[in-house]
């Protein structure tokens, strides 16, 4: 166990509500500086750890919710992949609106982490007396610093909010008004924090191999067509599929359970008619795809998390067999069962494909 004074933590400040400051307009807020956030949380000075701070901006401005896109995930993922070897843990201060899918994206991009990456933020600016920001930030730093010391190692991307620690690939924002605005969709937190104590549910932790290198696999820009089967109108679904010529893949979600899709369902017939050669991801764990060519996507039932995993699968895989392997497997704790040894399995598959061509030579 490292002594507290030996533990190095990096806080990446990207912006968000936690750092906002009032404007001259009544009730108005504007992005605030990293230095102002530190000033508003004097308890940071009492921490026994070595805490470094760094601003992370895109085009010389802090991150807004509208900036949470593939380009951001590429730059932020690369930054964390580079810095993680220098620190025991990294805390990412982020806006709440897109914290869940952003943590999910970084979870997939960063494989084989050697330390924790903890997202946090707040619903109320730290400058305000009733802010939840100080507690959330201090909790996140404690998780990053105690991981592998006072508590078991949590070498993955997580979200620390309102005294709960969620896996990045589980997290969503379900409320715009409550301070406990985050949940794990259908999953319980992997840890809770109360009165300075961190209680980890060790049964929910995965054992990550220590002999692997940290790998960064950036998400790429992909044109994915989402179709919410139950809540979209049939006219909307048909219109979308009629215009699906240029999409990279189709994602079917919000699927019916009482009367599952079959070969004669309208959406199935329309895909057959308008998009017969497209990759189709079937985001449901309770029913089976009506077409064996479709790929079942193992993921929590949240639209943003579904889209993030589909994007990662398309970015990482080189062919449909690899897509099926990645989509149907548990990669970062988003599904059930053991974690896939992703890189090893992909290398094996690619070697197996090369053998016939080498034999012919």
Automatic annotation (TrEMBL):
<feature type="active site">
    <location>
        <position position="17"/>
    </location>
</feature>
<feature type="active site" description="O-isoaspartyl threonine intermediate">
    <location>
        <position position="17"/>
    </location>
</feature>
<feature type="binding site">
    <location>
        <begin position="96"/>
        <end position="97"/>
    </location>
    <ligand>
        <name>substrate</name>
    </ligand>
</feature>
<dbReference type="InterPro" id="IPR027474">
    <property type="entry name" value="L-asparaginase_N"/>
</dbReference>
<dbReference type="InterPro" id="IPR020827">
    <property type="entry name" value="Asparaginase/glutaminase_AS1"/>
</dbReference>
<dbReference type="GO" id="GO:0006520">
    <property type="term" value="P:amino acid metabolic process"/>
</dbReference>
<feature type="binding site">
    <location>
        <position position="65"/>
    </location>
    <ligand>
        <name>substrate</name>
    </ligand>
</feature>
<dbReference type="Pfam" id="PF00710">
    <property type="entry name" value="Asparaginase"/>
</dbReference>
<feature type="domain" description="L-asparaginase N-terminal">
    <location>
        <begin position="8"/>
        <end position="203"/>
    </location>
</feature>
<dbReference type="GO" id="GO:0004067">
    <property type="term" value="F:asparaginase activity"/>
</dbReference>
<dbReference type="InterPro" id="IPR006034">
    <property type="entry name" value="Asparaginase/glutaminase-like"/>
</dbReference>
<protein>
    <recommendedName>
        <fullName>L-asparaginase N-terminal domain-containing protein</fullName>
    </recommendedName>
</protein>
<dbReference type="InterPro" id="IPR037152">
    <property type="entry name" value="L-asparaginase_N_sf"/>
</dbReference>
<dbReference type="InterPro" id="IPR036152">
    <property type="entry name" value="Asp/glu_Ase-like_sf"/>
</dbReference>
<comment type="similarity">
    <text>Belongs to the asparaginase 1 family.</text>
</comment>
């Amino acid at each position: 166990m490292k002594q507290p004074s030996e533990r190095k933590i990096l806080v990446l400040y990207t912006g968000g509500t936690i750092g906002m400051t009032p404007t001259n307009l009544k009730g108005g807020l504007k992005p605030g500086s990293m230095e102002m956030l530190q000033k508003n949380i004097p308890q940071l000075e009492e921490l026994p750890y070595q805490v470094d701070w760094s601003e992370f901006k895109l085009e010389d401005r802090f991150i807004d919710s509208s900036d949470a896109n593939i380009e951001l995930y590429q730059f932020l993922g690369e930054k964390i992949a580079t810095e993680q070897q220098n620190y025991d843990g990294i805390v990412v201060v982020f806006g709440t609106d897109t914290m869940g899918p952003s943590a999910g994206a970084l979870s997939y991009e960063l494989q084989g982490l050697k330390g924790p990456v903890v997202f946090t933020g707040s619903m109320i600016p730290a400058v305000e007396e009733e802010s939840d920001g100080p507690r959330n930030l201090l909790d996140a730093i404690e998780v990053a610093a105690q991981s592998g010391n006072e508590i078991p190692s949590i070498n993955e991307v997580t979200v620390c909010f309102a005294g709960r620690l969620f896996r990045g690939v589980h997290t969503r924002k379900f409320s715009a008004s409550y301070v406990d605005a985050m949940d794990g969709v259908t999953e319980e937190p992997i840890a809770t924090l109360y009165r300075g104590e961190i209680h980890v549910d060790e049964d929910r932790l995965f054992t990550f191999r220590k002999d692997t290198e940290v790998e960064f696999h950036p998400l790429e820009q992909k044109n994915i067509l989402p179709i919410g089967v139950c809540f979209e109108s049939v006219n909307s679904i048909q219109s979308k599929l009629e215009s699906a010529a240029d999409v990279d893949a189709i994602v079917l979600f919000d699927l019916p359970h009482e009367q599952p899709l079959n070969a004669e369902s309208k959406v199935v017939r329309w895909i057959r008619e308008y998009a017969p050669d497209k990759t189709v991801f079937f985001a449901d764990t309770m029913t089976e795809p009506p077409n064996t060519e479709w790929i079942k996507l193992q993921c929590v039932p949240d639209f943003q998390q579904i889209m993030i995993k589909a994007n990662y699968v398309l970015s990482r895989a080189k062919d449909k067999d690899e897509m099926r392997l990645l989509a149907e497997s548990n990669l970062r704790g988003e599904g059930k069962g053991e974690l896939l040894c992703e890189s090893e399995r992909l290398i094996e598959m690619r070697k197996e494909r090369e053998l016939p061509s080498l034999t012919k030579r």
